[in-house]
Amino acid sequence: MARTLPLRAALLSLSILVGFLLIWQVAVSGVGKTQAMDPEYAALMGQAATTGKSAMPGPLDVGATIWKHLKDPFYDRGPNDKGLGIQLAYSIGRVALGYLLAVIVAIPVGFLIGMSPLMGRALDPFIQLLKPVSPLAWMPLALYTIKDSGLSAIFVIFICSLWPMLINTAFGVSGTRKEWLNVARTLEVGPIRRAFTVILPAAAPTILTGMRISIGIAWLVIVAAEMLVGGTGIGYFVWNEWNNLSINNVIVSILVIGLVGMILDQLLARAQRLVTFPE
């Protein structure tokens, strides 16, 4: 039974997907007719105002758009017309830089807080004050001080990625079993060596949990940030396609955003499993 569970789950997922696509296709074929729409808007949507077809594209239309993007994902025809691959690369690059900066800051500070109750109490008011602030609230200040939309987006990613990693690191470090620390002290293991040989392995699953939460938040925030600052990125692509009334491209972008977010999450989930249950 346990061995067949993944296969059964995959078949059920496939069935749900097929059912959803069929319902979607049927719904757009005869519901929400364009006769009720303004003729100019119907023309912009590429639909005849006299047909019985919905203004919302169906899965076949979206599939054709996906294939078009796959054939040439890296075209560049000017500032406002770049391929989906280029836009995605900009977003992933910004997330990677902001996330890496957050790792460099959050994990050492989290270790400091977790190993020192004094520092934990001293820094806690600042953490509690800044943690609830929406990352996008930092965008105007970042744009004013940094004067660059791309770097401002990286800063926002850094801010939103910082707190889950820092808090989970501090929690994991402070939760290290006292018996292990006492043995290390008995063997006269120094603080730095103790941090790497005892505390880090014990806290690694919790640290990776924070990193996994952070990457999900970072990918979510970059889309909103790029919608605000414009220029390049998958968020800007979504907003630009909406302005062009290209609903096909908007739906494709949503699917791509979800797919990349799932891949990023699964990469860190795999790392977390390797640390928790080493092979």
TrEMBL record:
User: Start and end of every ABC transmembrane type-1 domain?
Assistant: 88-268
Alphabetized UniProt keyword annotations: Cell inner membrane, Cell membrane, Ion transport, Membrane, Transmembrane, Transmembrane helix, Transport
- Presence of keyword Metal-binding: no
**Membrane association type:** Multi-pass membrane protein
Query: What NCBIfam families does the database record attribute to this sequence?
Result: ntrB
Matching entries from PANTHER family are given as: ALKANE SULFONATE ABC TRANSPORTER-RELATED, MEMBRANE SUBUNIT, NITRATE IMPORT PERMEASE PROTEIN NRTB
Q: What is this protein called?
A: Nitrate ABC transporter permease
Native organism taxonomy: Bacteria, Pseudomonadati, Pseudomonadota, Alphaproteobacteria, Hyphomicrobiales
